[in-house]
Write a structure and sequence with these properties.
mainly alpha, two-stranded antiparallel ribbon, about 0% strand, disordered N terminus
Length: about 170
Amino acid sequence: MGTNPGGRRVAKRKITLFGIGPWLALIGALYFSQAAIITLDHLRFYNMVFVSRKVDENAGLLLFAAGFLVFLAAQAALIIGWFKERLLTTGLFRLCRHPMYAAWILIILPGMGLMLHSWLILANVLVVFIAFKFLIRREDRKLEEAFGPEYLAYRARTSELLPWPRK
């Protein structure tokens, strides 16, 4: 047990370091594996090219790399904050409440779709986003229990996934 800045006791067991990440990864990986198999079997139908294959691949690789860097930066901040038992509201967490999930859904997965030239793989963004919207409620409840009014104020002023402040 520890205390948050408001003096409220926080049980680490209520908030895991991983949150809903493993569930999103599992859902995304299951869809991705099936989409890749179907795409390879029906390449002509699911093939997509926006500019040219090489430009799309390079754009996808840049998105993937940038998203991975955002993910790692958010993860490093989260690990530090978790061990200090404090709510993160600065850095990437100032832009959105869930920057690690945002990196996957908004940057990394679209990059993979572009690199692999597949509409079906690009649709993984939608699959993981729907799973995120369904699962994130549980994580938000745990954060509210742990941090109380501090989290409620943070939630009111900060976007859930899109990287810009609400107010």
